[in-house]
Amino acid sequence: FFSQTITGNFANVIHGLNANHLTDQVIQRSKRMILDTLGVGLLGTSTEVCHKVAQYSKIYSSDTSSTIWGHLDFRLPPLYAAFVNGVAVHSMDFDDTWHPATHPSGAILPAVVALSEAFPQKKKVSGLDLLLAFNVGIEVQGRLLRFSSEARNIPKRY
User: Fold this and answer.
1) Is 112 contained in some domain?
2) Under a CB-based contact definition with an 8 Å cutoff, are residues 63 and 75 in contact?
3) Which of 101, 126, 98 is nearest to 112 (CA)?
4) How many domains does the chain have?
5) pTM exceeds 0.90 for this model
6) Has residue 9 been placed in a domain?
7) CA distance 5 to 27
8) Is residue 147 part of a domain?
9) Which domain holds residue 90?
10) Could you read off the pLDDT tens digit of each residue along the chain, which spans 158 residues?
């Protein structure tokens, strides 16, 4: 499908992922990661930095909107909802971590949830679709981390 460069191989793997690749163990682990991220994100909505980005983001509007976690009456365009929710998760710094340092769920889940909310009512995504999208995001992030010589050198620099 794509050329056989490193990037082409990477694209083939990601493009080929589907719900059949989600084993019971992956599904259970993903649910735990999602629940943890939602909990940390909800707690993070009370931080000063989250309040500031939420106030800043209020200037943006769109016909399509997504929820700000913990505030069902506050909706923003999906890009800004993902931004505010991602800041909420990261502001607590208790979200999951890989080594070298990266926080996979806090970067992926807010985007996946915001996008899933933005779909028209007749095209809503299923829970399995959401789990697949979450895991594709985690896979992309993990592979990019493996490709990065900068990321491998983080522990030596600190």
Assistant:
1) yes
2) no
3) 126
4) 1
5) no
6) no
7) 31
8) no
9) 41-138
10) 555 787 888 888 888 889 999 999 999 999 999 999 999 999 999 999 999 999 999 999 888 899 999 998 899 999 999 999 999 999 987 777 666 567 789 999 999 999 999 988 888 889 999 999 999 999 888 888 777 766 666 556 55
